[in-house]
Amino acid sequence: MTYIFDLLHEKHYFEVLMRKKLDPSGTLKTALLDYIKRCRPGDSEKYNMIALCFSMCREIGENHEAAANVQLKLIESQPWEESLEDRPNLKKHLMKALTLFLDAAESYSKDFCVHQSLRCNRLTKLITLQLHFLHTGHKDKLINLRRQDLPECIVNLPRFYQAAIVADAYDFIPDWSEVLYQQVIVKGDFGYLEEYKQRGLLKASTFEDIAQKLKQHPGGAAPLKNLKRLLTYCEDIYVYYKLAYDHQLYDVVTVLLQDPQTGSCLNDLLAN
After folding, report:
1. Which of 97, 116, 103 is nearest to 48 (CA)?
2. How do residues 54-78 score in pLDDT, each as one tens digit?
3. Spans of the chain, pLDDT less than 70
4. Is residue 70 within 8 Å of residue 114, measured between CB atoms?
5. Neighbours of 256 (CB within 10 A)
6. How far is CA 226 from CA 19, 48, 189, 220, 230, in A?
7. Considering 17, 128, 153, 201, which has the largest number of Cβ atoms within 10 A of its Cβ?
């Protein structure tokens, strides 16, 4: 059978065979794809032609995704610092990977492979962000990261949306309280907090975790001032009051107790 397929391939008769639609049972389809995988592993065009003829969108998606990962592996094969010295070549590999992941996501979605399509879409966002960093002169590496490198990478990214893209691409759940502590309490970046809040992720427990981290690592007047401002975002009045009291923000405590809207509620809670 392999000999016959070799002849068909050499004579460019694969396309003719596809047009005749001689495969009601699917046996020919399986044999042709197996032949390409074993004997012509580098012929992605032929593989995709066969898969497309048989409406095998998932297989096309897998082929595109595999080719995209080859581009990422080529980048990974040398130190990042060396890749940065040849930025045009680095961008070329990234653009190829981006295009292939986009094609893979589209093919997967046609075959209702939702999980695979979402995975490829998350990687397209990561590569797009990496290209943006290269265009703007940033040297930070976002692709091909080891899992142990993710916390440091995420906490050092200046924008929340960037951190979210990296976390999503690697299917990683960061300690967002630690990230917010570094960005908001230590650095005083409340724009980061606003982005985080827009995602609907800001919970009472987040404020408690951040306040606890400050207690463990007191840093003087500036971090305490940032905590005071941070607490104004807390919608749970009791947590707001408790954390202000624990950190000796007595002016905040007094305002909360004297305010007509919050005072009666707090007095009831404290009485109980």
Report:
1. 103
2. 567 888 899 899 999 999 999 999 9
3. 1-33, 36-37, 39-55, 272
4. no
5. 21
6. 69, 56, 9, 11, 6
7. 153
CA dist 228 and 80 (Å) reads 41
Q: Which helix (H) or strand (E) holds 64?
A: helix 57-76
Helix axes 221-230, 190-198, angle to 10 degrees: 30
pTM of the complete model:
0.81
Helices (H), 78-148: 80-85, 87-110, 114-135
Contact 204, 236 (CB under 8 A): yes
Q: Which helix (H) or strand (E) holds 11?
A: none
Quick one: which of 179, 128, 180 has its CA closest to 154? 179
d(CA 146, CA 57): 31
In Å, how far from its chain's centre is CA 193?
19
Element (H, E) at 254: helix 250-258
**In the block, residue with structure tokens 């992941």:** 101
Task: Encode pLDDT of 232-254 as tens digits.
Answer: 999 998 999 999 999 999 999 99
Among 258, 184, 267, which Cα is nearest to 226's?
184
- Residue 211 and residue 202 in contact, taking contact as beta carbons nearer than 8 Å: no
Say how far apart CA 192 and CA 179 lie, in whole Å: 10
**Residues 67 and 44 sit within 8 Å (Cβ to Cβ):** yes
Q: How far apart are CA 243 and CA 264, in angstroms?
A: 18
Task: Please report how many Cα atoms fall inside a 13 Å half-sphere around the Cα of residue 131, on the Cβ side.
Answer: 17
∠ CA 53-57-61 to the nearest 5 degrees? 125
